[in-house]
Sequence to fold (266 residues):
Amino acid sequence: MNEYRIKTEQLCISYDKTVVVENLNVQIPTGKITALVGANGSGKSTILRTIARLLSPQSGQVLLDGKSIQTQSVKEVSKKLAFLPQNPMAPEGLTVFDLVSFGRFPHKTGFKNITDEDREIITWAMKTTNTLELESRFVDELSGGQRQRVWIAMALAQQTEILFLDEPTTFLDMSHQLDVLELLKKLNQEQHRTIVMVVHDLNQATRYAHNIIAIRHGTPMCVGTPKDIMNKQMLKDIFGVDAEILKDPRDGILLCVPYRMPEKTD
Fold:
């Protein structure tokens, strides 16, 4: 197995001629969960979307299996990498089964009907995400947690080994956040999927990710395991807060407790 199937080389990203990410060089460990963390507006989602080929860089490149992702066709990339955006929207009146079936499109030619093999994969994806009993329900009638599981089922139906998610727990309550994160952990542990996600809650990142990329103004300031990078200085540099670092007595996972904004000096 390639240790790093995804890499960036001197990646520069700009919006309206304003550079937001410059000379980005990161490697995504294969078969691990990587979390991108940082303050609002730090460039996390922009980086994620560019690596996933949804945005074109100004310069530099993203390498997927040793080839520039920009030179690979949409269908070729879609067979390797699935992307779940933040707060995705489904057309009104679409059933869960129909939405999950969209994940099979990269594997089809033209407008062929769903095959028995497709149906087996769709059913497997819904079983894996505990959404099979919802297959006849309309997506817009589901709760937030149910919808997020259904979207993940659609991504699984793509049968890719790499899954990108942009803040997958946004707008979910605490129990549904943990539900989604536990599902992603299960997919990584049992199916060895490489998962890359933007995470808003740093404590969730330290609990569920093997690798963390902490970003400030479009630049990775710290990269490594939670134990490697979790310290008071990182929290001050990346998030602008003073915080205590505590160790969960149950499993030793490092957690942060912010308590104030540091005083500004002239």
User: Anything to note?
Assistant: The CA atoms of residues 104 and 118 lie 7 Å apart. The longest helix spans residues 174-191. The chain has a mean pLDDT of 94.
